[in-house]
From TrEMBL, chain A:
Its cofactor is thiamine diphosphate. SUPFAM superfamilies: Thiamin diphosphate-binding fold (THDP-binding) (SSF52518). This is Pyruvate dehydrogenase (Acetyl-transferring) E1 component subunit alpha. The keyword Oxidoreductase applies. Gene3D superfamilies: 3.40.50.970. Residues 48-315 form the Dehydrogenase E1 component domain. The keyword Membrane does not apply. One of its GO terms (biological process) is branched-chain amino acid catabolic process. It comes from the Bacteria. One of its GO terms (molecular function) is oxidoreductase activity, acting on the aldehyde or oxo group of donors, disulfide as acceptor. Keywords: Oxidoreductase, Pyruvate, Thiamine pyrophosphate.
TrEMBL record, chain B:
This is Alpha-ketoacid dehydrogenase subunit beta. GO terms for molecular function: magnesium ion binding; oxidoreductase activity. Its cofactor is thiamine diphosphate. It comes from Microbispora oryzae. Residues 4-179 form the Transketolase-like pyrimidine-binding domain. Keywords: Oxidoreductase, Thiamine pyrophosphate. InterPro entries: THDP-binding, Transketo_C/PFOR_II, Transketolase-like_Pyr-bd, Transketolase_C.
Length: 363, 324
């Protein structure tokens, strides 16, 4: 038995869209957004720069400088749109693919690369950026986000949490438990699901019989599907959901309908499970091209602007590459550091023994 | 001095922790109005409110996962897992997140989360209510694992666990919940990571924790009548292990028997036997022997008296040690 889960390129009627793939501004009865020309240009710049970081990371992996990379190609608008909807006080819980959101939270891209290079399993201070560490176990972070939101409630903070996950994660028990907890506690949390159509090789109909945003109603909170390749719509919908959360109206599930244009990770080979035609169709909906068309058609940016952004992207790519290559390997004693906050005799003993053992080779 | 049951001693310890620090929360299934199925959290919701004593949805992974989130926000959650056999839905959050997030953050994150688990058998319960899962957690770096055995220790250990900055798996011997003893509510108690010689002796060291401490004390009393002077050491902390006290004891006595309810195979006793053999090899008169549950699932309760190591099985192991 199969069910229609709308995983193809056909746009379902529920989709919130403010900018068509051709770059036309369209109205939506429930969502609108007023942005200055400068703000739209700034979003375009974000999109281009994070794609460039991603491109550089893929190249670094191919050259053996990273062990792995999870590309965000195609998901830039979902991440920048939602990421730019956050206030500084909001807290973000990412998966391992939220490089665009990390950009919005001022996390140095080289720290992201460091994780995939293997110099640490995290490496940035979540409290400094209000951007939690990447979580690799699928869906685990949704519960952390709800717990954090319960803390915000107790603190009376004017802030919300936003948690990212993918279409595959919606099958996880933790994600469903997170929905329940958020619902019964009315937690100020926004569930931002990037439905990129593929959980490695499994299409959406392996995970769901219904559009994912419709799951929310069963848990008792609103769900909305937004064009995940439309940065304006993602920004508008997320802003509204975050505002509702901060104002005590509880959780929202946002399904950003998008497409993973690259492989799941650099270890994956999508040609084994999906047709090239599908990618070609989605290329016509590219998240960056439509903003460029909009800016160009409406004379909100000139050729000089686009060239400037491209030059900035090249410089950023070069900088990221250079600093990635000079990332030092951690010293062997790092294995033993930070396992516990307090003292631990056995770990101390093992560290001393191992360092003595290593020193034996230097004599 | 006040006479308290072990359950009430934990209750008093939690109460003291909540009074001392407004960030301390209690959360779990039925911990609020009901006071927990063993009444360990009795009265806390009434006194500290529903925001600090949280009746959670019936979802163990959710309890630990949201506790992690609360800890990231600066809270100090004390989670109750209702029974030992129900911790497994939460095992993923405990093992992949709670234990590893501080290291992942290079020390930026601290997760002061306490996971209280009533463990062990002997109460005539149905399946999944009598297990001893401690070795799963001692094998996971990043967790502190402790087990209390008596009311006085329970009172201070729970407070120390809450006060520390590391995640703690806190095992409570459920068949000893109703045991009473004198507790000095003003005494600081031994540090959480220290073992305690609960009965000094010269001839053999009995190592135990949680519910088996009482059994070993009874065994030592019986052995005394046969002229054997057994030392009983309560580990209190399984990770980290207070090897100094254990090593000193076994070197003095030259013999060691480890007792726990969990299956002997790959049980925590294996770690103790290996470590102590390494450290006390020239002092040992006999191999370190282990007595514990069989290599079977926990049996139906009509058979649990055969499964659980009792005074006689401990003394049988003692006899075997002396036979070398």
């Amino acid at each position: 038995m199969t069910a229609d889960a709308s995983h193809g390129v056909d746009t379902p009627p529920e989709l919130v869209q403010l900018l068509t793939p051709e770059g036309e501004r369209v109205e939506h009865p429930d969502y609108d957004i007023e942005l200055t020309e400068e703000e739209v240009r700034s979003l375009y710049r974000d999109l281009v720069l994070v794609r460039r970081i991603d491109l550089e990371a893929v190249a670094l992996q191919r050259q053996g400088e990273l062990g792995l990379w999870a590309s965000l190609l195609g998901q830039e608008a979902a991440q920048i749109g939602s990421g730019r909807a956050l206030t500084d006080a909001d807290m973000v819980f990412p998966t391992y693919r939220e490089h665009g959101v990390a950009w919005c939270r001022d996390v140095d891209p080289v720290k992201l690369l460091g994780l995939f290079r293997g110099v640490s399993n995290g490496g940035w201070d979540p409290a400094e950026h209000n951007f939690h560490l990447y979580t690799i176990v699928i869906g685990s972070q949704t519960l952390h986000a709800v717990g954090y939101a319960m803390g915000l409630q107790r603190d009376g903070a004017e802030a919300a949490t936003m948690v990212y996950f993918g279409d595959g994660a919606t099958s996880q028990g933790d994600v469903n438990e997170a929905f329940i907890w958020a619902s019964v506690t009315n937690a100020p949390v926004v569930f931002f699901c990037q439905n990129n159509q593929w959980a490695i090789s499994e299409p959406l109909e392996r995970q769901s019989r219904i559009p994912l945003y419709k799951r929310a109603s069963g848990f008792g909170f609103p769900g909305v599907r937004v064009d995940g390749n439309d940065v304006l719509a993602c920004l508008a919908v997320t802003r509204q959901a975050l505002r509702n959360a901060r104002e005590g109206q509880g959780p929202t599930l946002i399904e950003a309908f998008t497409y993973r244009m690259g492989a799941h990770t650099t270890s994956d080979d999508p040609s084994r499970y999906r047709l090239a035609d599908e990618l070609e169709a989605w290329k016509l909906k590219d998240p960056i091209e439509r903003v460029k068309a909009y800016l160009f058609k409406n004379r909100l940016a000139d050729q000089e602007f686009f060239e400037k952004v491209d030059a900035e992207a090249d410089a950023l790519g070069k900088d990221v590459r250079g600093r990635c290559l000079t990332l030092p390997d951690p010293p062997p004693e790092a294995i033993f550091q930070n396992v516990y906050a307090g003292p631990h005799a056995l770990i101390d003993e093992e560290r001393e023994q191992f360092l003595t053992y290593l020193a034996g080779f230097e004599r | 001095m006040t006479t308290l049951t072990l359950a009430k001693a934990i209750n008093e310890g939690l109460r003291r922790s909540m009074e001392d620090n407004a960030k301390v929360l209690v959360m779990g299934e039925d911990v609020g109005k009901l006071g927990g199925v063993f009444r360990v959290t009795d009265g806390l919701q009434k006194d500290f409110g529903e925001d600090r004593v949280i009746d959670t949805p019936l979802a163990e992974s959710g309890i630990i996962g949201t506790a992690i989130g609360l800890a990231l926000r600066g809270y100090r959650p004390v989670c109750e897992i209702q029974f030992d056999g129900f911790v497994f839905p939460a095992a993923d959050q405990i093992i992949t997140q709670l234990a590893k997030m501080p290291l992942r953050s290079l020390g930026k994150i601290k997760l002061p989360v306490v996971v209280r688990i009533p463990f062990g058998g002997g109460i005539g319960a149905v399946e999944h209510h009598s297990e001893s899962p401690e070795a799963y957690f001692t094998h996971t770096a990043g967790l502190r694992v402790v087990a209390c055995s008596n009311p006085a220790d329970a009172y201070t250990m729970i407070q120390d666990a809450v006060r520390g900055d590391d995640p703690v798996i806190f095992f409570e011997p459920k068949r000893r919940y109703w045991d009473k003893a004198e507790v000095d509510l003003g005494a600081p108690g031994l540090p959480l990571d220290r073992a305690k010689i609960v009965r000094p002796g010269a001839d053999l060291t009995l190592l135990a924790y949680g519910p088996m401490v009482k059994t070993c004390l009874e065994a030592a009393a019986a052995a005394e009548e046969e002229g054997r002077d057994l030392e009983v050491v309560d580990l209190r902390s399984l990770n980290p292990l207070d090897l100094e006290v254990l090593t000193d004891s076994v070197r003095r006595t030259g013999r060691c028997v480890v007792a726990h309810e969990a299956p002997v195979f790959s049980g925590f006793g294996a770690e103790l036997a290996a470590r102590l053999t390494e450290r006390c090899f020239y002092h040992l008169e006999a191999p370190v022997l282990r007595v514990g549950g069989f290599s079977t699932p926990y049996p139906p309760s009509r058979l649990e008296d055969y499964y659980l190591p009792d005074l006689d099985r401990v003394l049988d192991a003692v006899d075997r040690s002396f036979a070398y």
